[in-house]
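Researcher: Let's do a round of design. I'm pasting the structure tokens now; please hold your answer until I've finished.
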């Protein structure tokens, strides 16, 4: 059985479109259910889910999770889910009719532990001239291309499993104990990191996956996110997340003042790129280099923040065992 999981908060209108797209899925070859976990919405989300449930040809379950954070929501949904294949998407995503069938086929043909789908943008406004695909990760629209690719430790790790479009076997989630509720967009930040840590844990545990381009969705990109200030803040906040993850999952043995040496080299290279791009009026290269510099600043700031212990490897609970 497949369980499709959507965490949502205060986006009732967008959620209605996502649920409508899910209601039109072609049969994936096995039963499936849809679980919507409401992370303390105060809009019309319950009514939207009730209306969709009345029209859905498949079971549609509504859960409410009052603790803030997408990680809490996902872990609660997985405890309730009946499927051995868990397919994750977001409340601002549209998927074609063959989306679930593509996931089922990928698992059957490859025997993978997890599968990452393709994500394409659904622009709400015209992208600004400074925005390049190098920055698409900020908007959760990275495009891994049109070929199926293997994913394993040290191999294609730039294709990151994202909650907008990924699938994983239940035993994998139970092994890595779900998503860390200490990470995510909490306390007014733009930090993410919960999907990043989840991916690291899967790869370190030896699980292998595939990137499956036919499991493709369109992810809405709100106009208000297409601002330089949003990108600068996102990179800075996520630099701090990366610093804490480095403490838990080291990527090197060579550090200078608590920062990996290779990051200093990358920062110096980015400064040279920024200078060169500014001189040639290459606004896209200049902006990408500027954002990477903001990320490095957030990383360094986190390493020298008083009281920073980098987090604890065992800080999040075993939250996804069957109830």
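Researcher: That's everything. Go ahead.
Model: Designed sequence:
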């Amino acid at each position: 059985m497949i369980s499709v999981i959507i965490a949502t908060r205060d986006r009732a209108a967008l959620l209605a479109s996502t649920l409508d797209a899910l209601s039109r899925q072609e049969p994936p070859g096995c039963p499936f259910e849809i679980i919507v976990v409401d992370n303390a919405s105060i809009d019309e989300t319950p009514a939207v889910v009730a209306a969709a449930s009345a029209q859905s040809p498949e079971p549609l379950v509504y859960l409410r999770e009052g603790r803030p954070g997408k990680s809490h929501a996902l872990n609660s949904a997985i405890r309730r889910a009946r499927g051995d294949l868990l397919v994750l998407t977001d409340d601002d995503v549209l998927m074609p009719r063959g989306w679930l069938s593509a996931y089922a086929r990928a698992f059957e043909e490859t025997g993978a532990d997890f599968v990452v789908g393709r994500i394409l943008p659904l622009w709400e406004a015209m992208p600004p001239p400074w925005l390049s695909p190098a920055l698409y990760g900020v908007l959760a629209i990275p495009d891994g291309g049109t070929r199926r690719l293997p994913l394993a430790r040290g191999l294609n790790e730039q294709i990151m499993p994202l909650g907008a479009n990924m699938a994983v076997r239940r035993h994998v989630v139970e092994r890595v104990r779900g998503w860390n509720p200490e990470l995510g967009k909490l306390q007014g930040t733009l930090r993410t990191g919960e999907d990043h840590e989840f991916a690291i844990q899967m790869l370190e545990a030896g699980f292998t996956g595939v990137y499956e381009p036919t499991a493709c969705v369109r992810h809405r990109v709100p106009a208000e996110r297409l601002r330089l200030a949003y990108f600068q803040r996102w990179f800075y906040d996520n630099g701090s997340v990366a610093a804490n993850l480095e403490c838990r999952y080291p990527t090197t043995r060579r550090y200078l003042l608590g920062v990996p040496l290779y990051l200093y080299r990358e920062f110096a290279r980015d400064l040279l790129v920024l200078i060169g791009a500014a001189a040639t009026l290459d606004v896209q290269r200049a902006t990408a280099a500027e954002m990477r510099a903001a990320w490095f600043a957030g990383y360094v700031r986190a390493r020298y923040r008083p009281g920073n212990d980098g987090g604890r490897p065992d800080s999040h609970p075993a939250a996804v065992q069957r109830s």
